[in-house]
Amino acid sequence: TRDGELLRYQVSYQHRETDQCTEHARRDSGLGIGIYQPDAAPAVPVHYRCRCYYSLASRPAFLTKAQRAAA
């Protein structure tokens, strides 16, 4: 990833159960829901037959309106 880029944990569309993958995708550590610094992102696959993945999330994509106004 390039400087300033973050990762968004994406649950596979084939995912049917609530488990660790769901928890990773719903976690908000202050960067946004499912957003991780590259060095703090959970490793994938999480479990047998896991098809979850990461997509790039740039900072403006997850900032609130108030945070964007202050930036």
Would you write up a description of this structure?
With 71 residues, the protein is an alpha+beta fold. It contains three helices and three strands; from the N terminus they run βαββαα. The protein has helices at residues 20-26, 59-62, 65-70; strands at 6-10, 35-36, 53-57. The protein has a three-stranded antiparallel sheet with strand order 2-1-3. The longest helix has 7 residues, at 20-26. The protein is globular, with a radius of gyration of 13 Å. The model has no long low-confidence stretch (mean pLDDT 81).
How far do the termini sit from each other?
22 Å
Radius of gyration: 13 Å
Number of H/I helices: 3
Number of strands: 3
- The class by helix and strand makeup works out as alpha+beta
Strand order of the largest sheet: 2-1-3
Order of helices and strands: EHEEHH
Overall form: globular
Main sheet overview: 3 strands, antiparallel
User: pLDDT below 50 for ≥5 consecutive residues: which ranges?
Assistant: none
Strand content: 15-25%
* Overall pLDDT: 81
Helix content: 10-25%
Structural topology:
Layout: E1 6-10, H1 20-26, E2 35-36, E3 53-57, H2 59-62, H3 65-70
Antiparallel strand pairs: 1-2, 1-3
Give descriptors for this structure.
3-stranded antiparallel β-sheet; single chain; 17% strand; 71 residues; alpha+beta
Care to give the gist of this entry?
By secondary structure, this protein is α+β, with helices and mostly antiparallel strands. It has helices at 20-26, 59-62, 65-70; strands at 6-10, 35-36, 53-57. Strands 2-1-3 form a three-stranded antiparallel sheet.
